[in-house]
Write a structure and sequence with these properties.
- By secondary structure, the chain is α/β, with parallel strands linked by helices.
- It is about 20% helix and about 35% strand.
- The protein binds flavin-adenine dinucleotide and FE2/S2 (inorganic) cluster.
- The site of FE2/S2 (inorganic) cluster (FES) has 12 residues, from loops.
Length: about 350
């Protein structure tokens, strides 16, 4: 079930002229429910014109801080991000879903060298990961490459400076500005040459254990491809996308007919008949079944379920590995049925 609780906003902090941080008050009895791993996100639900809007926001605070904070950047023309920046204040209450996500830093006792490439609001999960890496072992190091238009639009600039002072021997930041020339910062966007400069030149002696990438799809592809070209194994590269590409759903165009679907959710089983041009999640929601979802664009992981009978194919998938798909896992917001019957289990994931 897409369970959520009404949480009160305890603080709204202006991070830049176009971004705010919201901190939620988590009552003692819900502390376990809202405990999270560095890098995870929460989904905020908001009623708009009789419909429920859902938006995912990465948690920027470290798990150890005891705080649940997200940073929201205003998107020009955006619905919730503009509302959040212009209207939300301390004391307001929002429905908040439980923390989720696979873009996480798992703490271990071994020494870790971690690098992150972030752009714009893509810094939010990286803040939580950076702080967690640095505090979890006195030998851990963290290299942050952070792209923005200019210093004024740089979210968490002050917090990053504080971390730099606190961990001066182990935390290194390379700013990249596309619209400002600053001493010690690179000019332009994060691209192949930036990655090569960082891993082959500035930190060539560092044997990185993991790379975390968060930002526009273009940046993620450029960084990931360059890392792989430099011999970094794909399992060391973790990425999180905030928006899905606008590709047409070509799969839907070529599908015909109907499928009888059996859905298991919270130990209950529901039956429905759906058009194969539809995606499973939409058909399930049309029946008022409270299935979990957030982005509806194939970039978070909230809607994952397991196919236990029949076949379905995803229009797009940037989350599940080939092995997980072979095991039957599926993003229901992208899944079109291919067989006359399909059984989908949200509980077995
Ligand atoms: C896992 C995950 C984590 C995320 N974490 C963060 C985070 O930490 N911080 C953060 O700021 N964001 C984050 N996001 C993005 C966030 O969820 C929202 O997508 C973002 O805030 C925009 O929402 P919105 O309602 O303001 O914009 P929307 O109303 O959804 O619009 C998005 C954009 O599309 C344009 N648009 C809308 N409708 C149309 C239309 N009909 N035609 C053309 N263009 C249109 C708008 O102008 C806008 O630029 C995350 C997303 C995911 C999936
Ligand atoms: S709802 Fe985000 S991947 Fe399906």
């Amino acid at each position: 079930m897409s369970e959520s609780h009404a949480l009160k906003i305890s603080a709204v902090d202006q991070l830049t002229p176009n971004a705010v941080a919201l901190t939620f008050e988590v009552p003692q009895e819900l502390k376990d429910t809202y405990s999270f791993k560095a890098g995870q996100y929460i989904t905020l639900k908001y009623p708009l014109n009789g419909k429920e809007l859902r938006r995912a926001y990465s948690i920027s605070s470290a798990p150890s801080s005891g705080k649940l904070t997200v940073g929201i950047k205003k998107m020009p023309g955006g619905t919730f991000s503009v509302f959040a920046n212009e209207n939300l204040k301390a004391g307001d209450v929002l429905e908040v879903m439980h923390p989720e996500g696979r873009f996480v830093f798992e703490q271990t006792s071994d020494k870790k060298h971690v690098a992150a490439f972030a752009a714009g609001s893509g810094i939010t999960p990286i803040m939580s990961i950076a702080e967690t890496v640095l505090e979890s072992n006195p030998k851990n190091t963290f290299v942050l490459v952070f792209g923005n238009q200019n210093p004024e639009e740089t979210m968490y600039f002050k917090k990053i400076q504080t971390l730099k002072e606190q961990y001066s021997e182990r935390f290194f930041v390379q700013y990249v500005y596309s619209r400002a020339h600053e001493e010690d910062a690179l000019f332009g966007r994060i691209e192949r040459s930036t990655v090569n400069f960082v891993i082959k030149n500035k930190f060539k002696e560092t044997p990185f254990d993991a790379f975390y990438l968060c930002g526009p799809e273009e940046m993620i592809h450029a960084v990931s491809d360059t890392l792989k070209d430099n011999g970094v194994s794909p399992d060391k590269i973790h990425f999180e996308l905030f928006t899905s590409s606008d590709e047409e759903d070509e799969l839907a165009e070529n599908l015909e007919g109907k499928t009888k679907v059996e859905v298991t959710l919270d130990d209950e089983t529901f039956s429905l008949v759906m058009d194969r041009k539809q995606v499973v999640l939409d058909a399930v929601l049309d029946e008022d079944i409270d299935a979990p979802y957030s982005c509806q664009g194939g970039v978070c992981s909230t809607c994952i379920a397991r196919i236990t009978e029949g076949k379905a194919e995803m229009a797009k998938n940037q989350i599940l590995t080939d092995g997980e798909v072979a095991e039957g896992l599926i993003l229901t917001c992208q899944a079109h049925p291919l067989t006359p019957t399909l059984k989908v289990d949200y509980d077995d994931v």
